[in-house]
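Entry for the shared binder. Reason: the reviewer on the internal report wants the predicted structure included alongside the sequence.
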Amino acid sequence: MSPRQPLPFYPAQGENSGAAVVVFPGGGYRVLAWDIEGTEACEWLSAAGVSCVLLKYRVPGTGPYPKSSAALQDAQRALGLVRTHASEWKIDPHRIGVLGFSAGAYLAAALGVYFDERLYAPIDDADRLSCRPDFSVLIYPGYLAQAEQNFALNPAIKPTEKTPPTFLMQTEDDPVCVENAVVYFMALKEAKVPAELHVYAQGGHAYGLRPSGLPAASWPQRAEDWLRAIGVLPAE
């Protein structure tokens, strides 16, 4: 993302909850799954009364932090920019979260750890605002568990007590490995971060919000339930 690139904004439809989400599509840091893990997610959230921003973070030739800091720089910048526009966009600056899929979920987890200091030289007032998400939704994350180390937690992404409340979802048959969600959930528990984990038997990977007839496809409803439970969305 260029420092001054405009962010695609999806205003809340119907009754505005005041909450906002920055969406990070997946794509293995090679491409961005712009529709299935981007625009369609924003349309869902917008219909639920949540304003949305879709981040075009830098790919290809980058990679998961710390291999490259480019995508995380873009994520930090995006959170600051959204908070800058909070009044104009009718957003509560204390209810801005992130939703990431696959590589984008790793990016969301990284932002939940690396928010105290920008990884780039400040550009304007947006970079003086916090880039900490108020909540995180991680859907079939990658890169969080090290398969070659008996699925130990990636040491670059160690949550602390300041890491935001987190919702995780993955399926047991995901070729990216369900341990990514499970291991990170346990690390969140150790850090005393409120977290909710949903593991389903079938579903694979990279399905976004598209219906499959499988229980895993209900994750958007479970995520909405969780957002109500933590006070981001109003109770029904």
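Summary line for the report: The mean pLDDT is 96.
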